[in-house]
Structure formats: C-alpha cells, structure tokens
Write a structure and sequence with these properties.
By secondary structure, the chain is mainly alpha-helical. The chain contains 15 helices and two strands. The chain has a two-stranded antiparallel ribbon. Helix 1 runs antiparallel to helix 2 and helix 14 crosses helix 15. The model has no long low-confidence stretch (mean pLDDT 84).
C-alpha cells in the first residue's frame, strides 16, 4: 500500500474515522500529490509552499480542510519513522476571518411577526405553534436543534426562564419574554397530548428540516425573501438587536450559550458595520457634502 493508503487505514482502525471522512482525506491528499507531480510523502517544504497557487481559487474553509489533512498525514509519517522532518510549516495560511452573520432588519422582523400573529388569530394549531416557535427563536435566541428538541418539562410555570440543553449537553437558563409566555400558553392549549416533546411530530419531535421549511413558507406569506430566513438568521437578529439596545457582550455570551467569548464577538462587527453606515448617512459632515 502507498503511504496515503497506510494513513487512511490508520484513521479507520485507530480513530474510527467515518467513511465520508476517509473519502474526503483521501481525495485531498491525492489531489495535492497530483498538483506536486510526485510522491507526496517525499515532498519538500518548498514544494508544499507552491500548493497555495493551485488552491488560490478555493474558499478559505476548503483550503483549511486540505491543510488539516496534510498536517495529519505528515504527522503520521513522522510518527511512523518514514520522515524525520515535518514540512507542513511551509503550507499556505488561509484567511481565518469569519463571515458576518446574515441578519434581518427591525422592519423585516416586524413584518414576520405581524403575519404570524394574524395567522394565529384563527387558533389553528399549526399557526399557533409557528408563533410560539418564532417567539422563542427571536425572543430567546435558541438554536434550531435546541428549539425542536425542547421537552414539555422545560416550559416555565412561574419562573420567566426556559431550561435549554445546548451544544455538548450543557444546560443553561434562557429568559422567556411575556410575549413568548403568552404564545406558549396558547400553544399548550391546542397542542396534541401524549408526547414528552413541546413540539411533537407523529413519531418524535418536529425535525430541524421541517422547521426550516415552515419558516421559509412563513417568509413567503409575509412578502419577505425566503432565502433570507432561517433559525440561524433569527438567532443572529436576536443577538444583534440586543447589542444595538445596549446589551453587555458577556451577558449575550451567556444567553447564546457560547463557550468562548470570541464566538460572541462576531456580533460586535455587525453592530460596528451598522454604526459606520449610520455615521456616513447621518453625520452633519455627510449631510453637508451631499448638499454641496
């Protein structure tokens, strides 16, 4: 077997790598070998440095994945005594800047809620459920998975908090607004009985895929572009609009369930962009230049 096949066999045997992972790593390593035009295992630092030219059109995330595969491959060769040096220090460094999250403006959020509230006036269970879920996505900043997997026991009775299990099984308390509590009460009055889930389906609980579909369908009825709406977008809107209102970044970190404050800081860039636009449009100097 080649060194690449040996490496993939090690990933499968010792790390229990999934088939898709093995296929992706194998593809990345063989493509790198083709770009170099020789045996990848014997590549020099100078040769690896040239890979950046062949990867110039790739997205930073794709390049980062390829670099990760190469680092692990050469680490394996060193561990196995096939190489004495690790040449991956010469690999190109992809941009690590995270893209700014998509958000909805206040007017768009208002249009969305107006449509959901108008439909819920019919007391149809589907419409009341949609309103309750919308209130929790935008009003409490829940992730899609956190929302659909809420057990019935998580609904607050006297306390204005919801117990949510987030990433890594970490539980946190999220505040529930008066509006959300009212929407939940309306949903509980029409919700089918016999399930442990707050938003049950025929077999278990509502799926993330169905939640995405329902939101996009609501966006169409509210005359909003459906591609702009998702549970993630509503969570981003929750965070950004709180910051605009003066919320503390640490408090926002707790509300969102972020383990690292650096993850929350992305929203400061969104708010900063809004402030720059505000200065450019509303500052007296900007006004005077337009009049000139």
């Amino acid at each position: 077997m080649s060194d690449i096949e040996d490496f993939l066999a090690m990933l499968a045997a010792e790390r229990g790598a999934a088939r898709n992972t093995l296929l992706a790593y194998g593809r990345d390593l063989h493509q790198a070998e083709e770009l170099l035009g020789g045996d990848l295992a014997n590549a020099t630092p100078a040769q690896l440095a040239k890979l950046g030219q062949g990867w110039s059109s790739l997205a930073p995330s794709t390049m980062a994945r390829k670099i990760s595969a190469l680092r692990q491959f050469f680490g394996f060769l060193v561990d196995e005594g096939e190489r004495e040096d690790d040449p991956t220090h010469a690999l190109p460094r992809p941009s690590t800047r995270r893209p700014l999250p998509k958000i909805l403006g206040h007017a768009q959020v208002e249009a969305l809620f107006q449509e959901a509230e108008a439909e819920a006036q019919s007391d149809r269970p589907e419409a009341v459920r949609m309103l309750a879920m919308l209130e929790l996505l935008y009003g409490s900043g829940l992730r899609a998975t956190e929302l659909v997997s809420l057990p019935l026991s998580a609904v607050p009775r006297d306390e204005p908090f919801l117990t949510v299990t987030g990433k890594g099984g970490q539980a946190r308390l999220v505040p529930v607004s008066k509006r959300a509590k009212q929407a939940l009460s309306r949903w509980l009055a029409v919700r089918p009985t016999g399930s442990q889930w707050l938003f049950p389906s025929r077999t278990k609980h509502l799926s993330r895929v169905r939640l995405f579909q329902m939101l996009k369908e609501l966006a169409v009825r509210a005359d909003l572009p459906p591609e702009k709406l998702s549970p993630h977008v509503l969570r981003h809107a929750f965070a950004t609009h709180l910051l605009e209102g003066g919320a503390d970044l640490r408090a926002l970190q707790t509300l969102l369930g972020h383990a690292d404050i650096a993850t929350t800081q992305i929203y400061t860039h969104v708010d900063a962009a809004r402030l720059v636009k505000l200065v450019n449009e509303r500052h007296p100097l900007a006004q005077s230049r337009r009049s000139d």
